Sequence to fold (143 residues):
Amino acid sequence: MFSNKVFSDEKRMIVAALSNPEGKTDLRRVDPKCVKCFREKSLSQFVTKKSLNLFTALKLEQGFLSTDPDAWEAREDFKTAKQTVAAVRVVNDCTERAVKLATDYNMALTHDEEQRQLIFQVIEHHRGRIAAPLKRKFTEVDD
Fold:
């Protein structure tokens, strides 16, 4: 809604979709096999009543939604909402947790930077020796 890259026609469809009931499937948990079908969808097809929670969570005025998208840029409530949305920092919790875990593990190995670099070199050397690190490429060793 707040992007200049989205055309007014699509914004009109998004506003209309805000009255749609929630979908039966949770789009936050997407089956990777369905990614191809998402390319054929428009933004408005992902919008439901639940999308209004963004306005509630960020305490944004919704008055501009009742006017035509071509007039939004002239409205103060839209300008304020656009500034607020632009200031929100996007966070990928899964990635941040993975980086934190890797950093903590890295620091647990050694506190000596020279030793840490040596460990990295050994890992890199062994990675280079394995052409395709797939499970099926390794054979079990009998004891």
